[in-house]
Amino acid sequence: MASHDIPGDYLEGYARILADASAAGRGLTRAERESRSALGERAADAGYGLRALVGAHLAASRAFGADPAAAPVSAEALLAAVEQAVDAFAEGYERAQRLAVRQEEAARREFIDDLLHGRSDPGLLAERAERFGLRLSFAHTVAVAQGDSGYEEGDKAPRAVEHALAGRFGDRGVLVTTKDGRLVCVAPGDQDDVIDFFAAQALAVVEGGRVAVGRAQPGAGGVVQSYEEALNALDLAERLDLTTPVLRAADLLVFPVLTRDRQAMADLVLNTLGPLRAARGGAEPLIETLAAYFDTGCVAAQAARRLNLSVRALTYRLERIHRLTGTDPAEPLHRYTLQTAVIGARLLDWPERPF
């Protein structure tokens, strides 16, 4: 917008202030500065650009200096008055801008909280979502990145990931934010390339990072569901000591099935692994041995290396488990029972949390 397009309302009283201040060779009074500041706030709220507004003031200043009817003043006094008036105007403008930014940030934060927890009417939430580039009538996928430390909106890591996504994909209806110290990406459910890129960028900047991806789900409630799936995947990874950097909820559906009947799983754990508590050192070292054995595809040499044991020591432990439980890790049916029980023990924090 050109300076000549600025309404004269935002220059109200400007010429009079220049005349009074420059003629007396004084600085602007408090009331004069406040009047300029108030006009600056109004101009910012109206959406006018500061560059055009300053241009309008300079044009008015030149017109005042060239007015033959005006009382003669020194150039130095005039420039001093112009500088103070424009400075006060810009101060008000910037104050209004800062307030607008804070209000926008508060509105964004409130929207994100409502979006991820489903605490708002779906219709109203969909209307608010359009303001932030999301169309909740479509399916969305939520990915969550977690690191060793927490992150807040505006931190270096979230800004780097957001800028990388914007530079790569432009306006694709993607929202990058933070929640509870984690990085969160909400993307259209049919754009796996966006989620894959987010995961790669997050792992590059989040120290000790791991990314979990929920399944694509429709509607506003689908965002909540996908977000919760991603959080559950992170929790599973911690409980099961999974080392995969990118976890997908679709690949972990067996675990909710296993824990759906908690009492049945607890019975399986106690009946299968309970006898291990009689071993010297308790059950935990032997459960750790079984976990490493199963995680390495029942390859004794690899499991021994993971546990920093000799193959002979590992074999002794497996034999000890067989004697105590009556189930043989080398026998296919017994192996399935033992592996399921070990998974249940890790999910239920047994024997650390007895039941």
Could you describe the 3D structure shown?
- The chain is α+β, with helices and mostly antiparallel strands.
- It folds into 3 domains: 3-101; 133-252, Alpha-Beta Plaits (2-Layer Sandwich); 256-347, Arc Repressor Mutant, subunit A (Orthogonal Bundle).
- The protein has 14 helices and 6 strands.
- The chain has helices at residues 14-24, 30-45, 50-66, 75-117, 122-131, 156-169, 192-205, 219-240, 254-259, 262-273, 284-295, 300-307, 311-325, 332-347; strands at 139-146, 175-179, 182-188, 210-213, 217-218, 246-248.
- Strands 1, 2, 3, 4, 5 and 6 form a 6-stranded mixed beta sheet that branches.
- The radius of gyration is 33 Å and the shape is elongated.
- The relative contact order is 0.07.
- The model has no long low-confidence stretch (mean pLDDT 88).
Short summary:
61% of the residues lie in helices and 8% in strands. It has 355 residues and is an alpha+beta fold.
Features:
Alpha-Beta Plaits; Arc Repressor Mutant, subunit A; elongated; 355 residues; alpha+beta
Detail the topology: elements first, then pairings.
Layout: H1 14-24, H2 30-45, H3 50-66, H4 75-117, H5 122-131, E1 139-146, H6 156-169, E2 175-179, E3 182-188, H7 192-205, E4 210-213, E5 217-218, H8 219-240, E6 246-248, H9 254-259, H10 262-273, H11 284-295, H12 300-307, H13 311-325, H14 332-347
Parallel strand pairs: 4-6
Antiparallel strand pairs: 1-3, 1-4, 1-5, 2-3
Helix pairs in contact: 1-3, 1-4, 2-4, 3-4, 6-7, 10-14, 11-12, 11-14, 12-13
Order of helices and strands: HHHHHEHEEHEEHEHHHHHH
Measure the end-to-end span: 71 Å
At the fourth level of CATH, the homologous superfamily of the largest domain is Reverse transcriptase/Diguanylate cyclase domain
CATH fold category name of the largest domain: Alpha-Beta Plaits
Give the overall silhouette.
elongated
Note the main sheet: 6 strands, mixed
Beta content? 5-15%
Number of DSSP helical runs:
14
Number of domains: 3
In helices, the fraction of residues equals 55-70%
Going by helix content, strand content and strand pairing, the class is alpha+beta
Unreliable runs: none
Mean pLDDT: 88
Supply the CATH architecture of the largest domain.
2-Layer Sandwich
CATH top-level class of the largest domain? Alpha Beta
Please report the total strand number as a whole number. Answer: 6
Radius of gyration: 33 Å
InterPro entries: CdaR-like_regulators (IPR051448), CdaR_GGDEF (IPR041522), PucR_C-HTH_dom (IPR025736), PucR_C-HTH_sf (IPR042070)
Organism: Streptomyces aurantiacus JA 4570
Domain CdaR GGDEF-like: 117-236
Family: Belongs to the CdaR family.
